[in-house]
Structure prediction request, 838 residues.
Amino acid sequence: MVQSRNLFSFLNKDSTRANIIQGVALLLVLCLFLYLFSNAAHNLDRLGMMFGFDFLNSTAGFDISWSIIPYNPGMSYWRVFFVGITNTLVLSFVVIFFGTVIGTIVGILRLSHNPLVAQLARCYVEVVRNVPLLIQIIFWFTAVFSALPPPRRGYEFGGLFFLNNRGFYFPAPGTDISPIWFIGALCAFALGGWYLLRILRAVKITQAKMPLSILLGLGGWGVLLVACGGVASRFLSWSVPALDGFNLEGGQYIPAAFGAAFVAMTVYRSAAIAETVRAGMQSIDKGQHEAAATIGFSRYQTLRLVLIPQAVRAIIPPLANSWLVAVKDSSLAVAIGFPEVVSVFMQTSINQTGRAIEIISMVMGFYIVVSLIISYLLNRYNAHVQYKVR
Amino acid sequence: MNNDAGLKQFVAKPARVPPHNDQSLVRRIHSRCFNTPGNSVLTIAVIILAWYIIRSALDWAVFDAMWNADTRRECLNISPNGACWAGVISWFNGLIYGRYPADQQWRVDLGFILAVMWLFPLMSKKIAYRNFILVSWIGLYPFFGAYLFLGGEFGAEVGIIHALFTSLAAGFFILLYANWLLAALNQPDLCERVRPLVAWLFPRGIQVICLLVVWGALSLPVALILSQMALEPVAIERWGGLFLTLIIATFAITMSIPIGVVLALGRQSKLPVIHWMSLLTIELVRAVPLITVLFMAVTLLPIFLPSDMELDKLSQVLFAVCIFSGAYMAENIRGGLQAIPRGQYEAAQSLGLGYSMTMLLIVLPQALRLMIPNIMTSFISILKDTTLVSIIGLFDIMLMARNIANDKDWIGLHTEPIAMISILFFIICYSMSQYSLNLEKRLKADRS
Prediction:
């Protein structure tokens, strides 16, 4: 029988030790939080501030220069939060879309056999990657978009579209018809088109050719779309921007800050994605190139049928990560006054209400939710696309 | 059948002419740039595009540029389409040092030269305690640097602990260079020289005690000298420009390594509480943008810290940047730890080393060595991210550059300062990234 030699021999057992270490760590963290929150309670008391999310229902009272969803100063802080979120998401979405397209093209060009093309693409990537994004945003804002002529001398395209240092103006349907109708009609047409395409693909697979009826259906769908658009535009009042004094009135506009943030972020993202694409393409075994050449594929066919389908597996995970970074980077638009979530909610609203803890946790929560969603979709996709190992 | 008679004799066809294999420049260019019509069009388009870009950039930046002028108006009058570098030149000092007093700027230069010189002995293979050089750079140099940059008198503005560590840092620096010199001359180093004396006093632990004795003996005169002179105090608010940017980036990268090691080890831990706490910290920090962390540090730290503890803005920013880069570094280090073969852990275990000894002596030294290129890449990204502190109002190089446009002589001068700092960042970041690529190749070659 092994007898315990002394009082503390229980400490020699691994599981006991693990429990003690974890308990101490937990206790320390709890104490830290308790300390921080007691400080916070004391400080809030001292400064006469309050804690709680009730302020979200009170009137904001300040204007936001540009928003996707309708907003006016009489609306609540909830609305301000949603305006910020939608602006951030729209900016990130267009950046992700164009950044991915341009980045893929540049990444493939970097692997071109033509040395001039490859070097030009390399220069683009290196220059863009090695200059901080914030500098690029401010460069595009101050040196390009703000340097455009003022509205009175701005560029005009057919009397409908205007480009000047305030932004890009374009005609918009009047507000006498609810936008819900537009969205509904668009969705219906998109659904119809998608359904037609599905049938088309199924038919093509089974019959290896397209029957006339399907083509007629597709054509009819297109004609219907154009006709509906024509009829609708007869009954719509279009609001066209027109010069009024020193400014343009009517229509809708995209502010210069959006343009600068969009261009700078797209360029920056495309350089990062180009590197991802290049690394993914180079990860493919050389034998695949040679095999494709052996069966007589041209370079383009090799790329489309052999390389890209395999590279996608290697590219998607870092690509999704890059998209996540794009959403986070969109917060830099605060530097040029674009009203995204950090700007309208973390800056203006904290200044107005002083509810720093609540607001900061809400904004951070938003980014965490976005990143969780993208990670979840990525995992789903990865499980779907990985080689099926039998 | 008269097969036999009609059987054809096999005659080999004459061999085809070998493909042209002369690697002349003309042929190479032809085969890669003009082999198909499409490729030829592409080549010509690229040449025209590159020519156009280079031409207009050179026109703006060199041929039409103004280098000497007193105001922006003067620039515009003489050369409206060229760059007005005169404004940038007149503000150049501000871009580098911020609003640091002009007659004290030698302290900034000296501090940076010492910081770089501190690392030079690493190149020598002969010197003892090479690992200690990096540790001392992280642990001791900041005190010396803070003393140089902030200034003040020992016992007055400079607290007693700060003064102590400043002297120790200076002493260590002298010790380092003396040992390096002696090693280069193939002489025994200072510690060896005092060994007989120390051995006489302390029979055990000679190595460490020798080091401490020499170190202390060198630090004492430094402390005496430094306490006699007083550097003019410079408030933190006057720090700025590239100087501030580099301070924030360097501080963040050095602090992020210990934070990252702790978080990465925690994440790999088998204890669920530790594992989940580390995981949560890493993932939450990585999910949010740096600018929100900076805003949090600036607005929430004063609320969550005791009311009598007032932090200046730089400390708040440093706190935020360290946490942020620490979480990213943790993921890097986890990658490095996973690259260490299982056999190393098992070998350490079979030698009877515990967890902490395995990590400190076996795993981390190898993992960190493997990760030097990664750490450099992180440094580049931190350096680029540091520009964000301008949004919350620290006068780093970015905000200084934007401020030139507010100067009444140079009002509206936006493009040139931004172009200038873009070039600066490009040179720094590009050379570092090329160096880290080079290093990565060498490390790979070492291992295989």
